[in-house]
């Protein structure tokens, strides 16, 4: 899909505030509200915009502990297998295949160290996982939603 500068600005404005009205966005990109709606509908139908969601502060809901876990897997483990397995664990907030020694990197959030340990044990029990290496997050310094430069 071909996106122009106006589409990119609309996306950036929605990333900053997904509750902004089409009229508010239109005023910032010099379009009418119906024109913005048509563009947003097109961006949604082509899969550029996957959805709208609330961004929750994890500590506000009691999930104050997080870690990044490198997964080392058996030789023929596919990204699809890792995807299916990690989606079974509610503590997993992200999973990525990576270059380097590890096969995947998994981002976990948990209520406390005990909960994190339980989540790690369940993740390690996946049949293709041969070992893991964990790094507990001490503090989050920068965390931004996916954005398109304006």
UniProtKB/TrEMBL annotation:
Molecular function GO labels: sequence-specific DNA binding
Domain HTH asnC-type: 3-64
Keywords: DNA-binding, Transcription, Transcription regulation
Coiled coil: none
SUPFAM superfamilies per UniProt: Dimeric alpha+beta barrel (SSF54909), Winged helix' DNA-binding domain (SSF46785)
The keyword Cell wall biogenesis/degradation is assigned to this record: no
Pfam families attached to this UniProt entry: AsnC_trans_reg (PF01037), HTH_AsnC-type (PF13404)
Protein name, entry field: Lrp/AsnC family transcriptional regulator
């Amino acid at each position: 899909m071909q996106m122009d500068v106006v589409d990119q600005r609309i996306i950036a404005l929605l990333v900053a505030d997904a509750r902004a009205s089409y009229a508010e966005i239109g005023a910032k990109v010099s379009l009418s509200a119906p024109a913005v709606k048509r563009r947003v509908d097109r961006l949604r139908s082509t899969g550029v915009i996957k959805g709208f969601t609330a961004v929750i502060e994890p500590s506000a809901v009691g999930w104050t502990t997080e870690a990044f876990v490198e997964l080392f897997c058996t030789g023929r483990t596919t990204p699809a297998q890792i995807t299916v397995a990690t989606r079974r664990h509610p503590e997993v907030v992200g999973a990525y295949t990576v270059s380097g020694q590890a096969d995947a990197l998994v981002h976990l959030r948990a209520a406390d160290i005990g909960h994190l340990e339980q989540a790690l044990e369940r993740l390690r029990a996946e049949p293709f996982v041969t070992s893991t290496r964990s790094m507990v997050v001490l503090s989050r310094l920068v965390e931004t939603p996916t954005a398109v430069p304006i």
